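Input record (Table S2, row 334):
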Amino acid sequence: MRRTLEGDDDEASGSTRGGAGPVQQAEGVLLPRYVRVNTLKTTVDDAVDYFKRDGFSYLGEANRLDDLDLKAKSFVRDLHLSDLLVFAPKTEFHEHFLYKAGHIILQDKASCLPAFLLNPPANSHVIDACAAPGNKTSHLAAIMKNKGRLFAFDLDAKRLSTMSTLLLRAGVRCHQLAHQDFLKVDPSDPQYKDVEYVLLDPSCSGSGMVCLGTDASPPDPEREQRRLGNLAAFQLRCLNHALGFPRLQRLVYSTCSVHTEENEKVVAAGLQQNPGFRLVHLLPVWPERGLQPLSQCLRASTTKTLTHGFFVALLERHSDAVSRAPPSLEEAAR
Ligand code: SAM
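Output record (S-adenosylmethionine complex):
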């Protein structure tokens, strides 16, 4: 029986579940089982050996997306993310030793992109603005090799409590958890003076999540539009707030939404209001891009990337910031 779900990506969307809910078209889709190896506790090679001894058949590193179409008991190493193993859909790991010991994290591939792309070095100071239940926080800590300072904020006490358990199990030690509204965190507070990296994964509609369960009542388009508008306004406030940290160099913005209002439009508005930042062109080999003109960003979907629906943008500070006028949408996209 499946006993704990809360820390896994199936439950991590933080979506404000309401009418918009998950994407209807995604119902019935079976995604691969993605397993992130927690390099704070083990290595990818050791995890592969363990699974082989456990009766799984290792097919090596995937070369194409088609290689992720796996049959029961076989697995591969992912073609884009080196610490990710891929198994057949519905492969059950909740009772597995490696899961219980925190050596593996059950995390959708798209949701591994934000920490991977932010890539903060060891000893850096990092903020995870909307952090619970903490899969991306533990991924950041692994990339930082547990060295540096990782400030993690969330408003939801229950999700934070799940997060504490998850981080303990994952061996994360460089974090500082705060039950706090990120919008009220003071960027000029001396304790954040060395923060150069922010991961911003705010609450969203969750419209990219597959299998969240559906809303029985038909959506009311006007209500939906209002709700998306409110979410987008909150997301833009978070983005503007995060870009105000004085030494910030790089920021990843991500959502598990498929709506342009919560993705490209938020990022475009953030860039227009913060001319000192520009987009970084992400992973040229990734098969799905942000909607034009923001093709530097990544999108993910069940059909094109075999993941939940997702969006990621990476913003970096640029040096000629002060002397430049705010960019137009087209400039921001170049
Ligand atoms: N990054 C998380 C992960 O990978 O496990 C998932 C984050 S979830 C998409 C969004 C989170 O933002 C929710 O846990 C929600 O409680 C939190 N949140 C919403 N408003 C917030 C605010 N003003 N300040 C801090 N956290 C907030």
